[in-house]
Design brief:
The chain is 43% helix and 21% strand. It has 100 residues and is of the alpha+beta class. It has a single domain, classed as 2-Layer Sandwich (Ribosomal Protein L30, Chain: A), CATH 3.30.1390.10. Strands 2-1-3 form a three-stranded antiparallel beta sheet. α1 packs across α2 and α1 packs antiparallel against α3. It is elongated. The N and C termini lie far apart (59 Å). The relative contact order is 0.26.
Amino acid sequence: MSTELKEKPKIQPKVERPKLHKVILLNDDYTPRHFVVRVLQAVFRIGEETASRIMYVAHTRGACVVSVYPRDIAESKATEATDLAKGAGHPLQFTTEPEE
């Protein structure tokens, strides 16, 4: 009597990509537009033309998505940009929310 050993099939765990979060620029009526553009350029590494468009959309609509990142990076960038504004005495705010 011989016993054959069969290998168990290897189960590959499903690895999900991290959920992405949007960084959102919130409009306020006090922060100078040129300062908003400078913050966008410095923190998010985007060009002046793109930063100006983002600032304008936020100004006219109340908010604008700046970029999309994994949660930790999005929160870090939003905090950095808000702190930069706060340090300069401006009420400019950035927030994050999950991408749908």
